[in-house]
Amino acid sequence: MKALVYHGPGERAWEDVPDPKIEAPTDVIVKIDSATICGTDLHILKGDVPEVAPGTILGHEAVGTVVEIGSAVTTLEPGDRVLVSCITSCGRCRFCKEGRYGLCTGGGGWIFGHLIDGLQAEYARVPFADTSVYKVPEALTDEQVLFLADILPTAYEVGVLNGKVEPGDTVVVVGAGPIGLATIMTAKLHSPGHIVAIDLDSSRLDKATEFGADVVIDNGLEDPVERVMELTGGLGADVAVEAVGVPQTFELCAELIRPGGRVANVGVHGHPATLHLEKLWIRDVLITTGLVDTTTTPKLLRLIESGRLDPTPFATHRFALAEAEEAYDVFGDAAESHALKVVLEAPKVTLELVEQHEVPVTA
Ligand SMILES: [Zn+2]
Ligand SMILES: [Zn+2]
Q1: Nearest C-alpha neighbor of 241 from the set 311, 157, 303
Q2: Considering every ligand atom, which ligand is closest to the CA of 132?
Q3: Series of mean pLDDT values for 10-residue runs along the chain (363 residues)
Q4: Cα(288)–Cα(306) distance, integer angstroms
Q5: Ligand nearest to the Cα of 118, by number
Q6: Which is it for strands 286-288 and 257-265: parallel, antiparallel or unpaired?
Q7: How close is the Cα of 314 to the center of ligand 1, in Å?
Q8: How far apart are CA 78 and CA 69, in angstroms?
């Protein structure tokens, strides 16, 4: 088969690799129908995630069709359409039993395109399939559910739920990239009073307005602290969500927050940030961090099914799966291309063809 393989910092190629095989009885093999590229994949390509070994297939967000199941898999069968999410759950370790799948110590957590081969490929091996994938309702398209693989539950759990967004709250989202926009989209489920988006890029701020921000602040042109204080009667925001991952934006969130407010960090940080405890200690501010657990994925899926949530506006560009390298170029140059999420689409096949697919059986 073909896959997008990481070959060390700056190096990647769409190339021939061996077909994946069932390695454990809890595995399934999935034919990838739609996949997408994440900002995290770009971090890996920059060499920021040294655990990713050269030779690893990238990608952790996809929708596909089960083509083969391991002998212990009981809830899936060939032909099932499934969402394969960024988080895998062994279902047995302490953290999985507590619903904290992101922290799984039993071989799950964020493994695709990180510790094992990922999903930007024609086929993928999916470990702990019974406890890790989500069946896709027949009426929904791949594109309707694809962004549940990462950005929607990440923004909702690590931003909105950790930030305890309440009806009427002023929610400030710092960073209007895909994660910031997903925070805006899912914060609206909790009826905040105002959503304020802060970014340095005017086209991203236009997107923030489209996604539901009430106020946008270009912090290259105006002082965001001053604006937020004006908007909140001098108190500061109830909730500030950090959706960039650089020290300045985290430190900005701590300045924007009201006494007793909540700072929810979603951004992936590569450098230390300063925590001004000398100012914060007396203000009862809650600061949270986290990796997504994906426990809300079923709820978000039901909201999509009922028409209450529509993530399809994230899909700004579409490529054939075999054009993954071009797709990386476009996604990596978002400042020019204005890409939010690029969708990689495999040629459609019928169930008959899926059944005829010969994946060597070894388990
Ligand atoms: Zn991702
Ligand atoms: Zn586990």
Answers
A1: 157
A2: 2
A3: 97 98 98 97 93 97 98 98 98 98 98 98 98 97 98 98 98 98 98 98 97 97 98 98 96 98 94 95 97 98 97 98 97 95 88 53 41
A4: 31
A5: 1
A6: parallel
A7: 13
A8: 7
